[in-house]
Design brief:
This protein has 387 residues and is of the alpha/beta class. The protein has helices spanning 13-26, 34-46, 57-72, 88-96, 114-120, 140-149, 201-210, 219-226, 246-276, 311-320, 346-354, 366-383; strands at 4-5, 52-54, 79-82, 100-103, 125-131, 153-157, 165-166, 169-170, 177-181, 194-198, 283-285, 295-296, 302-306, 323-324, 355-358. The chain has two domains: 13-257, 3-Layer(aba) Sandwich (Aspartate Aminotransferase, domain 2); 259-383, Aspartate Aminotransferase, domain 1, CATH 3.90.1150. The protein has twelve helices and 15 strands. The strands form four sheets. The protein has a seven-stranded mixed beta sheet, sandwiched between helices. A three-stranded antiparallel beta sheet has the order 8-7-12, with no helix packed on it. It has a three-stranded antiparallel beta sheet with strand order 11-13-15. Helix 1 runs antiparallel to helix 9, helix 9 (246-276) crosses helix 12 (366-383) and helix 10 (311-320) crosses helix 12 (366-383). The longest helix is centred in the C-terminal third of the chain and has 31 residues, at 246-276. It is globular and about 75 Å long. It binds pyridoxal-5'-phosphate. Pyridoxal-5'-phosphate (PLP) binds at residues 56-58, 86-87, 89-90, 131, 157, 159-160, 181, 183, 192, 194.
Length: 387
Amino acid sequence: MKDIHLFQPAFRTDECLYEIRQCLERGWTGLGYKTLEIENQWKRFTGLNNAHFLNSSTSGLFLALEMLRDRHSWGSNSEVITTPLTFVSTNHAILHAGLIPVFADVDQTLNLSPTSIEASITSNTKAVIFVGIGGNPDNYEEVVSICRRNSLILILDAAHMAGSYIGTNHIGHDSDVAIFSFQAVKNMPTADSGMICFRDSSYDQEARQRSWLGIDKDTFSRTNSDNHYKWEYTVDYASNKYHGNSVIAALALVSLRYLEEDNTRRREISTLYETYLTDLPEIIPIQHCTKSPSYTSSRHLFQISVRNVDRNLVMSELNKRRIFPGVHYRSNQNYKPYQHFVQSCPQADLFSETLISLPLHIYLDNNDVRRVADSLAESINKCRYKI
Ligand SMILES: *Cc1c(COP(=O)(O)O)cnc(C)c1O
């Protein structure tokens, strides 16, 4: 019996090697060249105004929070409303910028609940970070209006949202900044990289400078300006090294070509799971795009919440059947850096203990999906609490 893993990145090897070969033959593997190409292609694909290619989406989140803090002179009592149900990058970025994370609760979509956000706003609130879990755009539009009404900055952690749409618009148009991840197991895989897309072009300019230690011009354009390397530059910010490089951009260029095709298959697999998982009341599939028929999810994840069983036992039963699911996510309030931020989030706590992400990648055929569904039913039947 073959192993069925949670994620398996799809690389089109020959196309990737062709793109990488171009970097090597040209003798340019760094910032510029393919990084500019992927930025242009990403802007064309999403219709977003600006795009800057980074070494990860974590870098993008850190950069966004640092820049917003400095531009708006946010002091150390400034609060950012966020979700406990996310990868820690989201919330580390708030702490790293010296700001206060205020945890609002999620609802059955796993995304932040608009009601809970509104209840969390204080006179110190500066921004909201919204995470579209698994690519799901539900609640995003409501959160956009809340931010507008309350003059709050909206940061979209779009790590799962490459290829998610509101109507015909790619996600991200209404946020002040949207940050995408092209990490190896995300739905547009490279090795590690990400894209930061500011609405305002002056932010994009500053991001380009800050992402390379605050240096005012990248070497590639200096080299090309008059064909010999100019050594002079000025430094305006003491910032980190966050920019991406041409070898990884080469992988992103190929992944972007297949993004729509791959997401279509992800959505098919998710629909299959939904049709196979209707029998047991212990399984609650997390549905996407429930708030409007015009929404499209990238379907980076297919998640279920399990009830009346021990989630961890169900996972071990699945492992015995050579199926390796995951959990996205445990509430960040379980982790040491967040233990002092004690807002009560009962829904996030419930999901933290009950979520399972089922295998979802384009190497699964329909029989594999069936096998996962059947094995899950068997596992639930073995682990049901006796009352
Ligand atoms: C993966 C992920 C990130 C970080 O992405 P990297 O590109 O690996 O830095 C941030 N937020 C969420 C929600 C993620 O899933």
